[in-house]
Fold each of these.
Amino acid sequence: NVAHGLAWSFYLGYLKLVLPNLKKAISSFNKENSNLLWCEETCKLHILIPLSCKIHSNLSEVDSNIQFLKDLPLLYIDRAGVKGRVYKNSIYKIFDEDQRPHYCIVEYATPLLTLYEMSGTTSAGFSSEDRLQQAKLFYTTLKDILESSLDCRNCYRLVVYDDGATSEDEAQNTHFLSQ
Amino acid sequence: NVAHGLAWSFYLGYLKLVLPNLKKAISSFNKENSNLLWCEETCKLHILIPLSCKIHSNLSEVDSNIQFLKDLPLLYIDRAGVKGRVYKNSIYKIFDEDQRPHYCIVEYATPLLTLYEMSGTTSAGFSSEDRLQQAKLFYTTLKDILESSLDCRNCYRLVVYDDGATSEDEAQNTHFLSQ
Ligand SMILES: Nc1nc(=O)c2ncn([C@@H]3O[C@@H]4COP(=O)(O)O[C@H]5[C@@H](O)[C@H](n6cnc7c(N)ncnc76)O[C@@H]5COP(=O)(O)O[C@@H]3[C@@H]4O)c2[nH]1
């Protein structure tokens, strides 16, 4: 079960480090950017989980209504021999149907990229049929881990969607603008 | 097999991105630091794999002969929605028995930290007896992946050691100074 290990690694090696620091990063961002991230929903890390595991490197490519705005303040942590390893989160500006802008801290769950790339490499021993099942297992494992983590409460939102059918743009749009 | 997925993720999501860029990063570092990393052996990423999975955040804590020197130039990649994600590698200065300094780009294999932390969390379903077996599986899988990767040839050195018995310092010292 590749997805089980990847979900734990995503939590232990990333979310457990950045989520407890998110509120502080947002409040120092707001001081310098006239309180742009004022609403409760905006102050969470939105983690995109497309069950197809098709992950774009740049969100603004996916949908013209999504534009990169700025980074949150960077987090530096000495980790496994790398001094001052950098953790960075991007803020995006998203336009709704009436062209009103909303702000959102959002990124894909990177381990899905590993699942996608593994299914494309024969020696990894992992087929594209496995991919959907592993993506679902990744989501349910991550959800359980986060629900029992006190450190990360109210700091995240998992946005899972089945983009096999509808176009990526539709999936993105409906999820974001429903905020 | 958790270790199988973690080894593939370490290659696809990290080594495959940073190793092909290493030679370029070293040559630009050498221009500004009077060719400090001149020797062939030094121009590789040394990846520490202690079979105990005991990973220190800061290598200078492990052994007083090892001192952090500087970072290599940073690598920025748009990845999974994070714009300009930062990848950083640290250079250390290591003194041998005769107090002569050697330079080395070295870090621990981050996934071993995940293995260690998972074995300490009951809900991860992973015991500390599994840990040694998974650490060995991680090493052999990673070794096979890297040996068949053209992108990463001659850019790395896996330094595996059984630090269960000897003190960490001895293991560190003997490996480094044998360069
Ligand atoms: N030494 C080191 N320096 C790095 O910059 C680095 N980046 C990744 N890795 C290791 O390679 C593997 C693949 O990385 P991926 O990004 O797919 O998964 C990552 C990713 O999903 C998430 N994550 C970690 N750091 C970040 C980050 N800075 N931004 C976004 N996501 C991150 O959490 C997972 C586990 O991270 P680590 O536990 O640090 O170990 C990773 C992993 O073993 C690194 N290792």
Amino acid sequence: MRSVALANQKGGVGKTTTAVHLAHGLAIAGRRVALLDLDPQGNATVALQEMAVDLESDGALALLRPVTDNLWLLPSPGAERAVDRFAGVDVTKLLQLARSLEEQGIDWLLVDCPPRMDQWGWAGLQLCGEVLVPVQPEFFAMHGLSQMLGTLETAQAQFPGKGLLLGVLVTLWDQREPVAKDVVADLRRNLGPKMLETVILRDSALVEAASYGKTVFEYRPYSKAALCYGELVREVVHGGSSL
Amino acid sequence: MRSVALANQKGGVGKTTTAVHLAHGLAIAGRRVALLDLDPQGNATVALQEMAVDLESDGALALLRPVTDNLWLLPSPGAERAVDRFAGVDVTKLLQLARSLEEQGIDWLLVDCPPRMDQWGWAGLQLCGEVLVPVQPEFFAMHGLSQMLGTLETAQAQFPGKGLLLGVLVTLWDQREPVAKDVVADLRRNLGPKMLETVILRDSALVEAASYGKTVFEYRPYSKAALCYGELVREVVHGGSSL
Ligand SMILES: Nc1ncnc2c1ncn2[C@@H]1O[C@H](COP(=O)(O)OP(=O)(O)OP(=O)(O)O)[C@@H](O)[C@H]1O
Ligand SMILES: Nc1ncnc2c1ncn2[C@@H]1O[C@H](COP(=O)(O)OP(=O)(O)OP(=O)(O)O)[C@@H](O)[C@H]1O
Ligand SMILES: [Mg+2]
Ligand SMILES: [Mg+2]
């Protein structure tokens, strides 16, 4: 089982959007996928709320919600609670769940993390062997990225075999913005093989799909966004990773 | 002294951009302003890093960095540290600092909060009488907003006289996106007087200004963004607030 956390301390860079579309894309490609929503905001849970299918689920999968063929979701622990500062996270229980999912033949475990290296963010890194870091091609992203990559090094030292960088993914690229092109060129120059080849263009179809509680593969399968995320699935499955 | 926290648990909605531009706009309008960067990411600190002026600062103001006429900044506590999970925040010290700033004639205290109601987020609410909540007109924002408004009610109960809603501000409004118009209409229908009249349109000048470490008032004073934030300053100073 490959396990990938979507993490970046910078907010609003497309962690949830990427987690949901990578999960659905892998499921469409025939892999058995479990998506854990570890963000108390619960946006991944909300983004998939209109997709539902009747799947027989026993064992550990009974704890998850079937979303579509080959895709199960562990809803956010905090989606109901407004204030998450008092909630504790039981990492041992989550690690046990991850092991049970592997025994039931789950091929990919994806974890959506909050925009913070708090207890939920760190739980995400402890659960996964790899980390995918989405970044928006704009100035603040560059500033936060070096912090994030530093945090990953801390995680790798603390939890051996965890938190290896799968790659940095450019998302929300609006090709009308002149600064974006320079930032992407900078990122490729500075990070080299750590950058994924795939880039995700800005596409309002993603915002619309989310408002209907569906992925763009369901809502508008021939959109720019569907093509970009299809590329990402191919790159992540067939290599090109910087491991 | 009026004190306003910029808070929203949803990431990437323009908290930092609004904090920096409201602070500079108020300073241009002749108010004496102190901006506290309580986000360990330190984006407000980075956004103003190329603006500097030689101001005599004594007393509590000596702890802050003069940015431009009438504007001082308390740099982020975490801007240097990559991992903020171990850092503690001393709210008593921050409350003492706020009192000293008031004694030195500061008219407005603005606080940029991280996208999380963690110890830094809560410190921001304890320091300020009012809260301005930026939202992006898209689906996830609506979902997070009811949580945020619920959190404010908790804060008001716990810290009397703090955390009153100054208003909800629509930011990053891209008028080419059809969903955005519907979301703004929904927000006005549901929230009524809680919504500020001013809206901030999406403008790449803001992204460019940030990459130069300046505000858009300095970088491109006749841009859409400068006009929008100028409107916001007028609305916040002359009323129109939902208090
Ligand atoms: N490629 C894209 N094109 C257009 N909109 C996008 C794209 N990717 C994400 N979005 C939108 O941008 C907003 C932020 O994305 P998302 O919520 O996935 O980011 P996040 O990193 O998970 O945020 P948070 O830090 O709050 O967890 C959402 O409204 C989403 O619909
Ligand atoms: N009106 C706007 N037009 C265009 N870009 C904008 C606008 N407002 C903010 N941005 C850009 O959007 C990104 C997110 O904004 P910002 O960092 O201010 O949000 P935030 O809520 O403070 O994020 P975080 O949750 O990480 O603290 C930044 O790159 C910023 O430059
Ligand atoms: Mg998210
Ligand atoms: Mg910010």
